[in-house]
UniProtKB/TrEMBL annotation:
Protein name according to UniProt: Acyl-CoA dehydrogenase family protein
PANTHER family: ACYL-COA DEHYDROGENASE, ACYL-COA DEHYDROGENASE FADE29
Organism name: Aeromicrobium wangtongii
Domain Acyl-CoA dehydrogenase/oxidase C-terminal: 231-386
Known cofactor(s): FAD
Length: 392
């Protein structure tokens, strides 16, 4: 494998770097760099700026706004946006429902939804998980019973990320309860303003409101909102989940956060001394830097070997190690911030630096990373079975 970028790819990297550091509004990049929560408006503006430049959905078919980029170019695009403190395009739109509609939806669904999905004119939520149906997703119980030209949907979804902003929700629903569980599932698009649909917040350990429960009480959905064929939803869900895992190794943003921690540590000791003089901390940082470099090289190897746009099985390794390192760096931040990490409630006028104040909420928030996108225990099972050939 060649590690040196070709001249063409190096120029592409420069082009992306220039775009992300000059064309995405500064307030958005400042919010990401300070590790504060982005508002809905900021997320929308950020994706719309990318879409205006034609680079919000490079993974889609070209006729719907995609780019004929190589996997390596897509990797560079993703890494440069993270290094610049830019939030990647909303995953529910760009890497989940968009590719599914483009691959399996009718022409009518494509025309109706894809342009608005790419431009975040529609904010999508993901309605897959249910109580007792997370890792064992095929056990889901939400039903859709056909009555004439409509499905009548009843049931509950949970952990719906940012569902409070959602305009539409893509769901997995049971349309045939009499067959093997994977065979009776359909992929249905539901307008979140439909009568009978309720979104209820779940309170999180970091005090934030990021996930929700969604209830369906006799929600009527036109049959034309079915994606693909009835009872084939499991195939589309597997396609979607493979894509979901590819984007969850945020090497670029973890690198940025680690570099910030190192910089902060330089003057964070007693009387402004450097914490980097502590050999234990210095070794911890060096180890994390090495692990990140190894992960980056692994990501590049996966990129170099992924054929015809299909997710590589090693995407499970990226998900696993990417989130392990993401969590390790949020923990390092709490260590470096020391007692200042307790000042989470301090406001704007506080003497405590903002990055120290956000250390604890971030640490707590990122416990989620090893659960969503398929829990890390389940990724280990996949790695053992499909990559190492260790079938039990
Ligand atoms: C912050 C957050 C946001 C989320 N956002 C969304 C969203 O927007 N939309 C959505 O549909 N879902 C979302 N999810 C749900 C997420 O996909 C599930 O939480 C995840 O798949 C795990 O399922 P579960 O919570 O039911 O846990 P369970 O599957 O009950 O797992 C419990 C424990 O058992 C372990 N376990 C389960 N099966 C195995 C196995 N076969 N081998 C070894 N260990 C196993 C798990 O690893 C875990 O430790 C989100 C979750 C979180 C935490």
């Amino acid at each position: 494998m060649k590690l040196q970028l070709s001249e063409e790819d190096a120029a592409f990297r420069e082009e992306m770097r220039t775009f992300f550091t000059t064309q995405i509004p500064q307030d958005i990049r400042d919010t990401v760099t300070a590790r504060r929560e982005l508002s809905k408006d900021q997320i929308v503006r950020s994706m719309q700026a990318m879409n205006a430049a034609g680079i919000a959905v490079p993974n889609w078919p070209v006729e719907w706004g995609g780019k004929d980029w190589t996997p390596l170019q897509r990797h560079i695009w993703h890494e440069e946006m993270q290094l610049a403190g830019v939030m990647p395009p909303l995953a529910f739109n760009a890497s989940m429902v968009g590719p599914v509609i483009a691959a399996f939806g009718s022409q009518e669904l494509k025309e109706r939804f894809l342009p608005k999905t790419a431009n975040l004119d529609i904010w999508w939520s993901q309605g897959f998980s249910e109580p007792d149906a997370g890792s064992d997703l095929a056990s889901l119980r939400t039903t859709a019973v056909r009555e004439g030209d409509e499905y009548v949907v009843n049931g509950q979804k949970t952990w719906t990320t940012l569902g409070q902003y959602g305009d539409w929700i893509f769901t997995l629903v049971r349309t045939d309860p009499t067959v093997k569980k994977q065979a009776g599932i359909s992929f249905l698009l539901i307008d979140m303003t439909s009568p009978g649909l309720t979104v209820r917040p779940i309170e999180l350990i970091d005090g934030g409101h990021e996930v929700n429960e969604v209830f369906f009480d006799n929600v009527r959905v036109p049959v034309e909102n079915l994606v693909g064929e009835e009872n084939k939803g499991w195939d589309y869900a597997k396609f979607l989940l493979g894509n979901e895992r590819v984007g969850v190794a945020p090497v670029g943003s973890t690198k940025r956060t680690l570099a910030q921690a190192k910089e902060y540590a330089k003057t964070a000791g007693a009387g402004g001394t450097s914490l980097l003089d502590d050999p234990l901390l210095a070794a911890q940082i060096a180890e994390l830097e090495n692990d990140l470099l190894a992960l980056e090289l692994t990501a590049l190897r996966v990129v170099a070997n992924s054929a015809d746009g299909k997710p590589h099985p090693a995407s499970s390794v990226l998900k696993l190690q990417g989130t392990v390192l993401q969590q390790a760096v949020t923990e390092l931040w709490v260590d470096i911030a020391g007692p200042n990490a307790l000042a989470t409630g301090a406001g704007e006028g506080s003497d405590v630096p903002e990055l120290a104040r956000t250390a604890t909420p971030n640490y707590l928030n990122y416990r989620k990373a090893s659960i969503y996108g398929g829990s890390n225990e389940v990724q280990r099972q996949i790695i053992a079975g499909t990559i190492l050939g260790l079938r039990g």
